[in-house]
Specification:
207 residues; mainly alpha; Lysozyme; 9 helices
Length: 207
Amino acid sequence: MKPLTLGLFALAAAALSSRPSRASARVEKGPTRMRPVNTPSSEILPLLRAAALAHDVALPVVLAFADVESRFNPDAEGDAQWPFKVAHGQSLTNWQRHVRDNPHFRDNPWREDPARWISYGLFQLLSPFHARANEDPRALLDPTTNADRGASFIATLLRRANGDAEAARLGYVGCGLDGAHCDAATVAQVRAKFRSALARYEGSDAA
C-alpha cells in the first residue's frame, strides 16, 4: 500500500494494485477471536442486508465475504503483528508507510499507536485503508460502520471487476483482480474458499 492524500475510496482503489498481499497469512490463520459460526446472528443479518441494498451488491456476495473474513464475528481482530511487519521490497513497517508517513492521518490522535492499526470487524477492514482521517481505527469494530464500509468497498471492486465476484475477492485480499500479486496456490485457495462460501448463501433463507 502507498500513502495517499486522497479519501477512502482513492485509497481503496489504489490498494487493488499496490497493497501488500495478506492472502497467504489470512487464508491459513484467519483473524483472531473468531467464533466457529457460518450464519449471521439476528442482530448482524439486518445490518448486512441494509449494507448490501445501500451499495447495490447481491446479498449472497456480501454474506460470503463476511463469512470468509470473520465468520460473522463483529468483534474479530486481525493480525496484531501486521503494523510491525515489513512488506517484501520495502524498508519501512506497514504502520510507518501507511499511517505515520501518510498525510491523510497527519492529525489523527491515534497515529502514534501502531498496535491500533490492524484489521477489524465483520469484513476485517484494514484500518489504514478504511478509517477516516481523524477517526479511531477501532471505530471499525462498530458493526453498522463495518458493514457499510465493507459493502461499499466490495461494490467498488465489483465495478472494477465487471461484476466478477471471484475477481473482486482476489482484489479484496491483495492478490489483484487478476491474481497477479499472489502465487498460483494462494489464488486457487482464495477462489475455492470464496466459491464454497458463496454457494452456501445463494438461494438460502439467509439471503
